Amino acid sequence: MEDLKERIALLEDYIMKKCLWQFHSRAWDRKTQNDNILMKATQLLCDEPVGLETPLDRCYWADALSLTEGFQSRFEWLAALSKEEIKELMEGLKERIDFVTITGSLNAELTDPRY
Amino acid sequence: MPYHEFECSKCIPERKKHAVVKGPGEDLTHALPLGYLNTIPGSISERGCAYCGAKHVIGTPMKDVIHLSHGPTGCTYDTWQTKRYISDNDNFQLKYTFASDVKEKHIVFGAEKVLKQNIIEAFKAFPDIKRMTIYQTCATALIGDDVDAIADEVMEEMPEVDIFVCNSPGFAGPSQSGGHHKINIAWIKKKVGTVEPKITSDYVINYVGEYNIQGDQEVMLDYFKRMGVQVLSTFTGNGSYDELKGMHRAHLNVLECARSAEYICNELKVKYGIPRLDIEGFGFEPLSSSLRKIGLFFGIEERAQAIIDEETARWKPELDWYKERLKGKKVCLWPGGSKLWHWAHVIHEEMGVEVVSVYTKFGHQGDMEKGIARCEEGALAVDDPNELEGLEAMMTLKPDVIFTGKRPGEVAKKIRVPYLNAHAYHNGPYKGYEGWVRFARDIYNAIYSPIHQLAHLDISKDEIPTGAGFQTAKMLSDVNLSEEVVSSSILRQYTGKYDSVSDLRQKTYPEFKQ
Fold first, then answer.
1. Looking at the DSSP assignment, which residues form a beta bridge with residue A56?
2. What does the alpha-carbon distance between residue B462 and residue B32 come to, in Å, rounded to a whole number?
3. Disulfide: which of B180, B209, B283, B456 matches B257 by Cβ 3.0-4.6 Å?
4. What three-state secondary structure class fits A16?
5. What's the pTM?
6. Where are the domains of chain A?
7. Of A23, A26, A55, the CB nearest to B275
């Protein structure tokens, strides 16, 4: 368990330092971004098919692929994980990113109904 | 993350919640400075006003436009030429500035008549320019001048001209950021979708939140053109008024400065379904990742990769020459908004400097989230600082250099801290691979300037080493380096030209079949 937590912390730190997609300005945008990009990233890491039907899908996928390439080049231990372990890891990461950027965020503008 | 109370601001207790220190093991949910609030009375802010944000930051970089302030000439003067947003049409928007020259009598009797006279006079003085933006100011907003009505009258009388009215007087927000918001929303509501652009590529983007500071936009356009991507418009640096009216036909919005321009990207996504991709033009790795993502979106990633490989091979040895000499130097990263997070991590990773403090003059809490997330533990993060807080932070943190605007930059010089202009740059452009090396070169020159070393001596009390010879920057920077680094045949100083932009304007590009 500690191992999982530590690994999630490493992936979280990578996202926080290298990515911008998780910090859109409103809570609903952050939710959509986190849901789609981390879902596609999980599919990529598990060699599952990724939906690319719409321009929005392609945009999420470009961010997701960039993310997984970054993960794979920095965290060699990823290659040794099974699909189930990757899914567990990514679920934990998703929970953590949602918490830091949405549910636990102290940003008072997140719930402003307009852009 | 504990809040940080400045000694100098103890008399303004509300300031305490505007500064935090990033503690070990803490994250953004522990503490976040307040942001985008009215400046607390008694705190002498470094902010600009909402009119300045609309005109000076967003509107005026548009190149083929008469930018007219409806107000006193002072408002125009203070938003003229202080930022180097150059353009490829001989810098029309930098050379000339226009005001309706409102005086006391107009405040009493109304200023609409004088506005109309000035609009017509300006168009007649520059008959080749058929586009105008008019910016409301505090005085004319308070007296209720109907600028839209006057603009409509003129457009009826002169059907060949087009006018955009920006209603963002100085008081319309806590800082310049309020003006960024207003002009974003006004542009999409009033102008986007009124021109059908010519599409020349299968890959079409709007380049948003880019202001062509010393040529940044032209450097990035070079990469996009090499990839065969059509840039329909740039919002707004070196951008054309009519091109910006056709933003709705892009396939993708690539966004640099989210602080100033995410609003229009978000609205374009909602209204026209155009995706928003946040990118970064600063730093080798973030830029490479950004080009690759654009390539992936369009299915032309191999074109992006070719550019990344070529540019990295050309410029990385020069970046690394500076990195060896900048390692461990302490930096206060004190820009206006977006560079706080664009630079916070990458200058640490690619130049080896330590960011000991980040601040933002007009950023929102979202900018602080990004900035704090990206800087290292122990950094002091401050929202809307005042001059005394800046001084106290420099005295405490003892940075080797600060990156900020020219007003706080001059203050820093008084206490012998060199500064680089984070807004208008010293010797930019700083975007692009070469630009990033130029930035490293400027940091190096700031820290190791022999003149700066002499400034540390106080002739009223210090012993002046009259026997010692003059030391060059290299003598100062290389003193503790290993022989292997000093005599490396791979690493080298910047070898680019003084002007890295003008040649791009003459460049031809491969044609890609549609």
1. none
2. 43
3. B209
4. helix
5. 0.96
6. 2-103
7. A55
Q: In terms of C-beta density within 10 A (0-12 exposed, 13-18 middle, 19 or more buried), how is residue B115 classed?
A: buried
Q: Which CATH superfamily is domain B50-173 in?
A: Nitrogenase molybdenum iron protein domain (3.40.50.1980)
Q: Which residue has the tokens 């210090």?
A: B462
Residue B225, CA distances (Å) to B220, B306, B384, B430 in order: 9, 13, 39, 19
Tell whether B460 lies on the interface with A, counting CB pairs under 8 A. no
Determine the residue among A25, A36, A66, A101 to mutate to test chain B binding: the one whose Cβ has the most chain B Cβ atoms within 10 Å: A25
- Per-residue model confidence as pLDDT tens for chain B (514 residues): 689 999 999 999 999 999 999 999 888 999 899 999 999 998 988 899 999 999 999 999 999 999 999 999 999 988 886 789 999 999 999 999 999 999 999 999 999 999 999 999 999 999 999 999 999 999 999 999 999 999 999 999 999 999 999 999 999 999 999 999 999 999 999 999 999 999 999 999 999 999 999 999 999 999 999 999 999 999 999 999 999 999 999 999 999 999 999 999 999 999 999 999 999 999 999 999 999 999 999 999 999 999 999 999 999 999 999 999 999 999 999 998 899 999 999 999 999 999 999 999 999 999 999 999 999 999 999 999 999 999 999 999 999 999 999 889 999 999 999 999 999 999 999 999 999 999 999 999 999 999 888 888 888 999 888 888 888 999 999 999 999 999 999 999 999 999 999 999 999 998 888 8
Instruction: State how far the Cα of B495 lies from the Cα of B195, in Å rounded to an integer.
Output: 43
SS3 A94: helix
Q: How many beta-carbon pairs under 8 angstroms link A with B?
A: 91
Give B31's contacts in chain A (Cβ within 8 Å). Answer: 106
Are the C-beta atoms of residues B377 and B23 closer than 8 Å to each other?
Answer: yes
> Chain centroid to CA B480: how far?
35
Q: Is B425 left (phi over 0), alpha (psi -120 to 50) or beta?
A: left
Q: Which of B208, B290, B365, B383 best probes binding to A when mutated, by most A CB atoms within 10 angstroms? A: B365
d(CA B172, CA B38): 11
Structure tokens at A18: 């290298």
Give whole-number Cα distances, B99 to B117, B170, B297, B360, in Å.
11, 15, 44, 30
CA distance B348 to B378: 14
B329 part of contact set with chain A, CB < 8 Å = no
The residue written with tokens 């807004």 in the block is B423
Q: Does B263 touch chain A (CB under 8 A)?
A: yes
The position carrying tokens 């709705």 is: B248
Beta strands across the sheet bearing B66-70: B98-99, B66-70, B131-136, B162-166
Chain A residues with CB inside 8 Å of B341's CB?
A: 20
Please name which of B138, B119, B146, B117 lies closest in space to residue B75, comparing C-alpha atoms: B138
Residues pairing with B354 in the sheet: B330
- Residue found by looking up tokens 């950094």 in the block: B379
